[in-house]
Amino acid sequence: MLKISTAPHLNTPLSTRSIMLHVIIALLPALFVGLAVFGLNALLVVLTSVAACVGFEYLFCRYVIKQSPSTWDLSAIVTGLLLAYNLPSDIPLWMVLIGSFMAIIVTKMVFGGIGKNMFNPALVGRVFLFISFPVQMTTWPIPKPFEFMNLDAETSATTLGILKHSDIVDTSQLPDYWQMFVGNIGGCIGETSAAALLLGMFYLLYKRIINWYIPFYYIASFFMLISIHWLITGDIKYDPLTHLLSGGLILGAVFMATDYTTTPMSRSGKIAFAIGCGVLTYVIRVFSVYPEGVSFAILIMNAFVPLLDNIYIPRLFGRQRRA
Amino acid sequence: MRKKTFPLGGIHLDKHKLTSSYPIVDAGLPDMVYIPIKQHIGAPSKILVQKGDKVKVGTLLADADGVVSADIHSSVSGEVVKIDDIIDADAYPETMIVIKVEGDEFEPDIDLSPDIIRDIPYSPAEIVDKIRRAGIVGMGGAGYPTPIKTTIPEGKKVDTLIVNGIECEAYLTADDRLMVEKAEEIIIGAKIINKALGIQNAIIAIDENKPEAIRILSDLSKKYVGVNVEVCQSKYPQGAEKQLIAAITGREVSPAKLPVDVGCIVQNVGTVFAVYEAVQKNKPLYERIVTISGDDAAENLGNYRVRIGTPASFIIAKSTSHPKHIGKIIFGGGMMGVSAVNMDAPLTKLTSGILLLNDKDAVKPPETACIRCAQCVDACPMGLRPFAIASAIKNNDFAELKRLHTLTCIECGSCAFVCPARIPLLDYCKLGKLEVKKQS
């Protein structure tokens, strides 16, 4: 029996599922650093978050919309990992469950599931927890590399927290750039190691899962603004390299601001989105009460995506370039 | 220097060229040929023969009906046994002239010698007339009658002939082999068309995955003034007319405009070779080169010289002893080819390949939700937003289709190829074009 179909008769090997798999692979280096630095607690948070995200999506598909579960596209695992990466390792696990619920059910599934959500699910989960439980979300275990079973974590502020809330900064309290680069600093599970995150970024770029524009324009625009601010004020609080290497900038720029569903479709739209993220991150980090602005910046820009999609449309072949 | 290419979109299909090193071999004669009287864009030709008539190779079977139409010739010698509507590859009934093959006798004025004739003694009008009488149409797949494209319309200025040796379609190597084996004939064919057009400049465009053709044609073209080879990147759809013009000249043909509006004429290498044979050898278009390919459904792949009207099953029997494993037969390439309902459907002037897919590859994966990855936007060579066209159709928002410039879609299928959610975006675009046309 001959089968018939319309053209084209070929497909790229890349599918939704394999894209998600590549993202999971790209997230692994940061996971290893997170586990090495924060130990068993971090592992529990990651496992809880992933299991909860997958479970919530499965249950929602099965019992609420009564469709065959869409969890096999692996996107819930990506959300679970990203949520965990944005949490401190000593957060109570029931809070992780609440975050997962906000991410998967409230942000993703009720909007129609994969591809339909307006906001980045993991970031909504994180920000919800951040606003609801500010104390737990802003105390950070002191990194203890390779002491896996160490559960009685002492806590301290993050580097950005120290910079934000001290009138006179004691520079001896600050980790050096190398420690920040490899990830031996306080912070969320997945955000501390710039090296591991960049490794993941290069993997995604090599596999052509993401374009370079969003990470580049996001980081570059933020770096430029904070550098100018630093040069004008001369204040160590605004040291550009510290702002680049600590906190969630690289995690956000590489893995959250590149989320397909919640970013614009065209190249120019993506660039506008990324610059918007950079500017907002700068504004929040420098002028607001929060030491960290990446989550809010990306979520605010998520809301502009439909607008950007309408403004920045690709150039039509045979028409003049946009002036 | 970076090799030339078109400005927007495009995809990479490199790994599917399995038969580029297979020399062209003669497919031989089937028992019966089925010659459709419409193998071109425009009006079906007027039938000149009746049941019982004896014909030779090259005998005129049907006459062009008007300017946008083409002559049809017999590809075999024998007897006309039937003239009837027969189901074609794409499931539509087409009027076909069925000829029972007897011997292999040619019309006497066809020059079958292998000599290359370099001298072009004919006037432009004579050249166009010879092309018309040979029934030549655009063999890249469009099937636009070539006489129209060898005459410059009143008020237009043309400065460049682009000979399209790109063949960016998946699996096809017929043009590649033709360029390797008939290089000089193609160059002379280009000179002939240039003489008809009254212009001096011909560019043979070849993509970089055909090193042998590039080498041979570059060397030979040095002997001919006004014929040059230009190497383009291997990217699909580099061979699409507007994309090729943009790559070679930097000029973009606006929507609803034609290549002549930017001073270019594009002819496929197969067409140019047919022009050479028609003008220098008095040979009508009764055979063409066809690639038989597929990853594992067939064991004997290759490039065949096939008489027009040969049933696909005749060629398929040559290439595989297990026709059972064939899940899908495609007339043309993997990206734009038509999947055949009828294994006995005949090959026409426009059939550049027969592609055999196994049972597994024949099944299209199910459509899943759009994840807004923007791959279709990045792939579209026309700067369209296929995802938006698809959702406009799903929402019955037909006014939106016009705003999205749906009509400019060239139906290359790049969007559907790259879609990780396996959304049949090309189907939505084609549907969108129909809806827009219906409104206006």
Number of strands of chain B: 17
| Number of helices, counting only DSSP H or I runs of 4 residues or more of chain B | 14
Name the chain pair whose interface involves the most residues. Answer: A-B, 37 and 68 residues
User: Per the principal axes of the C-alpha atoms, what is the gross shape of chain A?
Assistant: globular
Helix-strand topology string of chain A: HHHHHHEEHHHHHHHHH
Strand order of the largest sheet of chain A: 1-2
Structural class of chain A: mainly alpha
The overall strand count of chain A is 2
Supply the helix-strand structural class of chain B: alpha/beta
State mean pLDDT of chain A (0 to 100 scale). Answer: 89
**Roughly how many Å apart are the termini of chain B?**
46 Å
Strand percentage of chain B:
15-25%
Note the main attributes of this structure.
heterodimer; A: 323 residues; Ammonium transporter fold; two-stranded antiparallel ribbon; B: 440 residues; alpha/beta; 14 helices
Model description:
The complex is a heterodimer of chains A (323) and B (440). Chain A is mainly α. Chain A has a single domain (16-311), classed as Orthogonal Bundle (Ammonium transporter fold), CATH 1.10.3430. Chain A is built from 15 helices and two strands. Chain A has a two-stranded antiparallel sheet with strand order 1-2. In chain A, α1 runs parallel beside α3. The N and C termini of chain A lie far apart (55 Å). In chain B, β5 and β6 form a beta hairpin. Chain B has helices at 124-133, 146-149, 174-181, 183-197, 211-221, 241-249, 269-281, 312-319, 359-362, 375-379, 386-394, 398-403, 414-418, 425-439; strands at residues 24-26, 32-36, 46-47, 54-55, 60-63, 72-73, 78-87, 93-101, 160-165, 201-207, 227-232, 264-268, 287-293, 302-307, 326-331, 338-339, 353-358. In chain B, the strands form four sheets. Chain B has a six-stranded mixed beta sheet with strand order 1-14-13-17-15-16. Chain B has a four-stranded antiparallel beta sheet with strand order 2-8-7-4, with no helix packed on it. Chain B has a four-stranded parallel beta sheet with strand order 11-10-9-12, with helices on both faces. Chain B is α/β, with parallel strands linked by helices and 440 residues long. Chains A and B meet through α1 of A and β15, β16, α9, α10 and α13 of B.
